[in-house]
Inverse folding.
């Protein structure tokens, strides 16, 4: 073999075993899972890692940005404020537990690989939410038993009815009704309560506000998945469209009763403790254009209810039924 031929052979071998050129030949456009009309490509674990674990949650400690402090001493020492704080977190926990348990069960009967993988990310999100709120109550001195008792106490009757409804759909492996009830109606109508918490605690415990902000960002992604999936189902034919429309109406009605019950139970206490700390709370604008110091309990109830109903309309539009 003359030298020219030997050098050609070597060139071929170099090309054949080049990691770089092999890597460039990989086909990222080839879908790993079968194409689903609802899937815009943002629902897989890689996206979750880039958006959540490697970005938003970087430098956090149990959901709190490490640079953000709290709570203020008043949260720990003022009995009314302290009990509102505990009730508030316990109310979140009632829902996070239902979410954690049911979303992980739904992986086993989700109809396609894309949904299964997304629900795995949602399960870890919900478990994280559950953990950070339990941690926060432990951080302020509650024992696990005290926390469990309070969560039980904060699970009001209509709320329990809604959670039972989700449990029932999941136990019967009814994917569409379960997703509609949990990811669209429950998570989608609750946005105004997250906004309320974030603002309400912004001066007294900015750290809790930062925890809730991060939880809220996850919930928005859960709602986006629910809306995209249900919108695709609603387009699949008139019988399914009517079924979804009827279920949405039924779930919405029950959820309204849950909100009435929660607001009725809590708003007076929130108002009273805000009034007692008017020097830091009065200027907060929970509702755009309305300072806390100028609002009555009735105003707050009305504004919250308006926001909740408008969120429901947003959800209906997103699933093509608005
Ligand atoms: Fe959650
Ligand atoms: Fe969620």
């Amino acid at each position: 073999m003359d030298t020219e031929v030997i050098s050609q052979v070597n060139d071929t071998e170099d090309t054949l075993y080049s990691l770089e050129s092999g890597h460039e030949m990989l086909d990222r456009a080839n879908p790993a899972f079968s194409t689903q009309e609802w899937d815009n490509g943002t629902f897989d674990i890689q996206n979750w890692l880039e958006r959540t674990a490697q970005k938003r949650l970087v430098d956090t400690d149990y959901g709190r940005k490490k640079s953000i402090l709290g709570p203020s001493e008043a949260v720990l020492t003022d009995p009314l404020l302290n009990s509102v704080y505990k009730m508030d977190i316990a109310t979140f926990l009632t829902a996070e537990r239902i979410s954690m348990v049911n979303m992980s069960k739904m992986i086993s009967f989700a109809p396609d690989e894309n949904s299964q993988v997304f629900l795995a990310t949602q399960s870890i999100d919900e478990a994280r939410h559950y953990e950070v709120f339990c941690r926060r109550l432990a951080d302020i001195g509650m024992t696990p038993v005290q926390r469990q008792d309070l969560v039980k106490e904060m699970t009001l009757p209509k709320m329990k009815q809604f959670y039972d409804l989700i449990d029932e759909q999941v136990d019967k492996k009814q994917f569409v009704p379960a997703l509609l009830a949990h990811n669209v109606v429950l998570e989608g109508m609750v946005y105004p309560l997250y906004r309320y918490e974030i603002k309400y605690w912004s001066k007294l415990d900015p750290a809790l506000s930062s925890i809730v902000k991060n939880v809220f960002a996850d919930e928005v992604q859960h709602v986006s998945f629910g809306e995209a999936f249900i919108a695709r189902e609603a387009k699949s034919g008139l019988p399914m469209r009517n079924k979804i429309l009827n279920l949405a109406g039924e779930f919405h009605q029950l959820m309204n009763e849950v909100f009435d019950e929660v607001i009725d139970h809590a708003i007076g206490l929130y108002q009273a403790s805000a009034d007692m700390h008017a020097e830091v709370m009065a200027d907060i604008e929970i509702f755009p254009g309305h300072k806390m110091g100028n609002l009555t309990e009735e105003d707050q109830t009305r504004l919250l209810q308006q926001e909740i109903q408008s969120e429901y309309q947003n959800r209906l539009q997103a699933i093509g039924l608005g």
